Amino acid sequence: MDSFNIMFFILAALILFSSIACVVTKSILRAATYLFFALLGTAGLYFLMGYTFLGAVQLMVYAGGVVVLYVFAILLTRGRKDQLSKNSKSKIFSTLLLCLVGLAIFVLGIMKYQFQAEALSAPNEGVLKLSEVGSKMLSTGDGGYLLPFEAVSVLLLACIVAALVIARKR
Amino acid sequence: MFDLQNWTTALHEWMLGILPEWAAILIESVLVALIIITLYAVFAIVLIYLERKICAFFQCRLGPNRVGKWGLLQVFSDVFKMLQKEIIRMRKSDRFLHDLAPYLVVTASMLTFACLPWNKGGHIIDFNIGIFFMLAVSSIGVVGILLAGLGSNSKYPMIGAMRAGAQLISYEISIGLTMLTMVALTGTMQISEIVQQQYDNGWNIIRGHIPALIAFIVYLIAGNAECNRGPFDLPEGESELTAGYHTEYSGMHFGYYYLAEYLNLFIAAGIASTIFLGGWAPLHIAGLDGFNGVMDLIPGFVWFVGKTFFVVLLLMWERWTFPRLRIDHILSLEWKYLMPISLFNLLLMALVVVLGLGININ
Fold first, then answer.
1. ipTM > 0.90, yes or no
2. A66 lies in the same domain as A143
3. pTM of the prediction?
4. Cβ contacts of B223 within 8 Å, gap of 6 or more
5. CB atoms A75 and B146 under 8 Å
């Protein structure tokens, strides 16, 4: 058991426990905080694999963006009732069933897929240069991502227009 | 040029001689962590003293002058006072979130602090995406501030946290765009390479001339806002909100916010000196080889710390000169002026780079 495995288990335990705590806790603000830790742990996994770009994006977009957005939404909408409602028996049962189905699909997928063990063995920063990511993102050639990239920007434009329509003075 | 890497490699090899590899790396990591924490505390003390003296200078006062010679021991006595104070916990507050928030703020600040280039070969965290990593970890601090405001379950912290959150998220855009402008000039995000380039070809602010100067000014404004300082300090405006998001904190928990505030100032100045003023790269003038040789004799960390304190001085000057802005003015300054200016500036820098209009010393 080398240091990478030790770090992997620490991060996995962090993700696992904060994910469970995120679902189990009654306070909505605490749920957002536990989600934050789960996302930080995921970023840690990316850094462990040496894919620093994805790790930094994970930190920036999810930890710094999405969680802040959640906390802002809680801040702006919170009334007297910030505790989650009690769950009925049938709700718990159906959720459990759905979760088991989801787990089964995931486990099946993981068992079926032939993982390359070497790909995860050591930090391999420098395998992929950021300039390569950038030029792939804007290339129209083979393996280029220009069309999805532009489609996402149209989606963002639609979001901005929608926000302006909702927020404008009537 | 003094290269710290020779020393660290020698230390590493000496350690490998007497210890197994894992133990050597573990001891080195602990040593580096201790160095970071010590530097963090030392710079905080220096900055607090400097801030008091400079503030007094701008307001025609004397500043601290009773404790020790020229008030030099004032900050130390303040730190000891803060260490002794009781940490008070409110009954209706969310204990877990209330206690967690200051650690998030101080962790984000320390991670960013570890990215600074102290010397040639003296980089602690040096990824190939350095600048982007720096931006990413500094955004964790926003979560800490928001949790502080919400976890306290009190009105003043809540309003303060809302203002701070809106302000930090807005000004992060300007910071990101100005950094992107300079990354467009250097063509790399790795901090060590950015500084090495400036050592070879001259400081970025000269290489990028007009767009770099615009970016520098925008960065100085946005940097002050990002540290919750200067004319942008209304998240903790004491005359309206008592102390903003850290109203309900006492003892060392408040101390962490205090520490993080001053170190964020140092970090903002350090980033500015890295991407605009050349980090540890000494001042070189083309053609004057003797002069350049003398400048190379001064070690890199002296250059870096000197430049950083120069930018700190600029930021403090800004803070103590302008009156506090209103929240809607702050947001419109960012969204209606700074962001369009920095977007246009990015375009200008792209033109300069594509047409090869930059000035290269060598």
1. no
2. no
3. 0.85
4. B175, B268, B269, B271, B272, B315
5. yes
Digit-coded pLDDT (tens) for B46-80? 888 888 888 888 888 888 888 878 888 888 888 88
Any idea of the CA torsion for A123, A128, A129, A132, to the nearest 10 degrees?
Answer: -160
Model pLDDT, residue A98: 94
Partners of residue B3 on adjacent β-strands:
B120
Per the structure, the complete domain to which residue A92 belongs is given by 1-101
End-to-end CA distance of chain A: 65
Contact A33 B100 (CB under 8 A): yes
Distances (CA, A) of A37 to A56, A59, B61, B102: 15, 11, 47, 15
CATH number of the structural domain spanning residue A85: 1.20.120.1200
One domain for residues A86 and A140: no
Nearest chain B alpha carbon to A78: B150
- Ranges under pLDDT 50 in chain B: none
Report the percent of chain A where pLDDT is more than 90.
21
The answer to whether A31 and B98 are in contact (CB under 8 A) is no
Residue found under tokens 């930059």: B358
Tell me the per-residue pLDDT of A156-168, one tens digit each, with 9 for 90 and over: 899 889 988 888 7
Any chain A CB within 8 A of the CB of B140? yes
Single out the residue of B60, B70, B63, B143 nearest to residue B109, CA to CA. B143
CA atoms within 13 A on the CB side of B145: 33
Under an 8 A CB cutoff, do A29 and B151 touch? yes
